[in-house]
Amino acid sequence: MPSRSSRRIRRALSSGALGAAALLVLGACSSSGPPPASGSGGVSGEVTVFAAASLKESFEELGERFEREHPGTHVTFSFGGSDALAASITGGAPADVFASASPKTMKIVTDAGDASGTPVTFVRNRLEIATLPGNPDRIGSLKDLTRNGLKVVLCDASVPCGAAAKKALDASGLELTPVSYEEDVKSALNKVVLKEADAAVVYRTDVQAAGDKVEGVEFPESADAVNDYPITVLERSENTEAAEAFLALVRSPEGRKALTGAGFLAP
Amino acid sequence: MKAQDFPAVPRRRRRVSRGAPLPLLVPALIGVAFLVLPLIALLVRAPWRSMPDLLTSTEVWQALRLSLVCATAATAVSLVVGVPLAWLLARVEFPGRRLVRALVTLPLVLPPVVGGVALLMALGRNGVVGRLLDDWFGVTLPFTTAGVVVAEAFVAMPFLVISVEGTLRAADPRYEEAAATLGASRFTAFRRVTLPLVAPGIAAGAVLAWARALGEFGATITFAGNFPGRTQTMPLAVYLALQNDPEAAIALSLVLLAVSVAVLAGLRDRWMTAS
Lengths: 267, 275
Description:
The complex is a heterodimer of chains A (267) and B (275).
Chain A: H1 2-26, E1 45-52, H2 56-69, E2 73-80, H3 82-90, E3 97-99, H4 103-111, E4 115-125, E5 127-131, E6 152-155, H5 160-171, E7 180-182, H6 185-193, E8 199-203, H7 204-209, E9 215-217, E10 227-234, H8 240-251, H9 253-261
Parallel strand pairs in A: 1-2, 1-3, 6-7, 6-8
Antiparallel strand pairs in A: 3-10, 4-10, 5-8, 5-9
Helix pairs in contact in A: 3-4
Chain B: H1 2-18, H2 22-45, H3 51-55, H4 58-91, H5 97-104, H6 106-109, H7 112-123, H8 130-137, H9 145-170, H10 174-181, H11 186-214, H12 218-223, H13 234-244, H14 246-268
Helix pairs in contact in B: 2-14, 4-9, 4-11, 9-11, 10-11, 11-14, 13-14
């Protein structure tokens, strides 16, 4: 008991010291719910999952399934750019599970000693070009994106989708000046959904999730920039059992089915 | 006896007001600590050794210059339309005035991201008005520096309007009436009498609006996107730096803090206390 309360105090102190910075990162989607009910027996209580923005649709589906399979549990998600999530986890954000869109961002968390155990790769994802419905600009390749007058949006290189896009562009020797470097893959995609941009380089899964609001164009260079998605339970988790159970669901056959159904590749 | 007692009363009162009671002093000090501690923590955790390298990078200067230029432009926009708007609200009776005032100050309480989304819906390439701008003039605001100014003006102008309206209400309208009896038109009276009268209030409002525009983040990143040198202002640079280089984020934050403090300190004596 004393170790737990002192841990809580330490956490409160460290998150207090981070102050504005942590608030900024957490933004509106801070998930500081009530502390999890400490169930001694089966799986119950609150599970907070920090996950890459690209996992939104499939993880929400898995979250509902998890709550159905384990009555008395509640899964809260915080989706965002993997790097922003990693920064808030190392800053003391109360999360139980972290699923990142790249090993590089996961390394931020493991280096800080915030991961419990070794992260495992659970899916992989490749890039695709999202264009306006019907592809009015007739974009057929990565090179077409460099055309004059085309408004293209990329993810910022600090987030995995941006790093992957940069890798694909570098590999093909293309210079692409976008109109904006967005902070995560969903905001890049949404600039096309809102028709503010003509195209965006996003994940295949995001194109699929957007349905007929965008049209996907595959490009061969995306094979050079496939992202591994690692997942881990976090060291500070106060509900390790439920966190492990959620991770097990993600890696289970039905979890994999949901993820590949959303367009992810098996690891 | 009574004559001697009398002056003692105000003296005792003064002594009482000087010493603050503990139930007020403690929360007040906690309040100060709460507001100042994060700023001190920023100084403590600052990577002083690598500061010179971090701060001389072209990206930082680009972002800082863009921030200053856009905040100033947004303040100018706010002055041009905000001062007449404040005058209208303070001096003209019209139906629905209270509703208009509420609507005008709505961006004050609106989350800036919501403001950014609303701006996209209105002025985006596919927006209600933006579509016409694009069709008729080929002008699109998202992803441009002008878009940053628009986003900043949207969130900053209410500060100016509120400040100026308050000053106008406090100013005696009889000066304007006197000017009118001497033959001045209403606009001349505004220009020659009202404007000089409320100048300190306008200046205070402009400083507030400028500071708010300088710190604007949510509406900017939503409406104008993020591109170094064009739409990436300091707050955006700080946010993105925090994701992969926290030290750089701290350094950038310090610059923004220093600029804000310098501006407030420099203008306070001249403007803030004058009103």
